[in-house]
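[stage:ingest] chain + small molecule (zinc ion)
[stage:ingest] validated
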Amino acid sequence: MHWVFIIVLSVVFHLDADRVQATELPVTLPYGAPKIISEFHSRRGVKGRQRGSKHQGIDIGGPNGAPILAAADGVVVETDIGTCWGPTIVIDHGADRSGKPLIAAYGHLGDILVKTGQTVTRGQRIARLSNNFTKFRCISGVRHLHFQIGRSHRSGPKGSYWGHIKYLKDGKSATNPHLFWADGPGQVTCFRPATTYPKGTLTYPVPCR
Ligand SMILES: [Zn+2]
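[stage:predict] done
[stage:export] tokens:
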């Protein structure tokens, strides 16, 4: 009896290992929410290739022109066109519910619709995806948003930093974005215009159907 159990368990674990490692908490995507094509801490990239290190954000695919939404109220602290990352916005979303800073980097964008210093409200269109995904190496040839949460913005001189650590001091040890959804940890929450969401929480940075 035991060996059957062990085989079943190992099969389940094997199939699910990447996902469990990837998210470190179960994630529910509501109906109509665009899919996550590479999860937080996944070792698999958007084209299914092995990553050299754990993924530090979540990747969400979308069509040309797809709007990118502010995940909470905040202040734009940086806009940039990274040589590898492409157009990028960094927003200070204030404190999470435990009082720690929530700094979001929105990477691999097309057109940027906001300026540094600008105040944004949750759900506001801050950017669009575009057809630039072959132009910037880090976008890996698949049009998508890379959404990453850090605790510390790298302001001021960037030196030779590139990629996430150009924007977030803790780029290499990012925080799991699934911890902060308005509906609760692991409960991806679509932004709905007439809804009020608790402070210190995030809503999905792309529109749901
Ligand atoms: Zn990514």
